[in-house]
Amino acid sequence: MDARSLGRKLKNCRGQRGLTQDACAERAGITTRYLADIERGDKTPRLETFIAILNALDASADAVLQDSLNTGYLPKSCEISRMLEGLSPQARRQALEIFSAVVQALRKG
């Protein structure tokens, strides 16, 4: 994994959400300096920190890591993720349960 690429993607996500480094770092429970180091690619976060940053950004790991993964990323999944953005966690779960039920029904029929 390219640390600079990861840092750029996290910075882009933060910018799209309209968050400052200070606000994002506070939400993630890390220092602004550490977030800046990650965004520059000078540091690679531990898994727990990476997850905390993603949660602070309300971003998915597959969207951030898509260029680093050999499999698993599908453009349609990105479209589904965009449709779920802005929903509360509970509403997201409900939407995914409905989507799952529709997919199961289509497989049977």
Explain this structure.
- By secondary structure, the chain is mainly alpha-helical.
- The chain has seven helices and no strands.
- The chain has two domains: 1-70, 434 Repressor (Amino-terminal Domain) (Orthogonal Bundle), CATH 1.10.260.40; 74-109.
- Helix 1 crosses helix 3 (32-40), helix 2 crosses helix 3 and helix 2 crosses helix 4 (47-57).
List keywords for this structure.
single chain, 109 residues, mainly alpha, 434 Repressor (Amino-terminal Domain)
Structural Rg = 16 Å
Characterize the overall form: elongated
Q: Give, in order, the helices and strands.
A: HHHHHHH
Work out the count of structural domains.
2
Write the CATH fold name of the largest domain. 434 Repressor (Amino-terminal Domain)
Helical content stands at over 70%
Q: Tell me the span between the first and last alpha carbons.
A: 41 Å
Look at the helices and sheets and give the structural class.
Answer: mainly alpha
The number of strands is: 0
Query: What is the averaged pLDDT score?
Result: 88
Poorly predicted regions:
none
Number of H/I helices: 7
CATH class of the largest domain: Mainly Alpha
Q: Could you say what the CATH architecture of the largest domain is?
A: Orthogonal Bundle
Q: What fraction of the residues are assigned to beta strands by DSSP?
A: under 5%
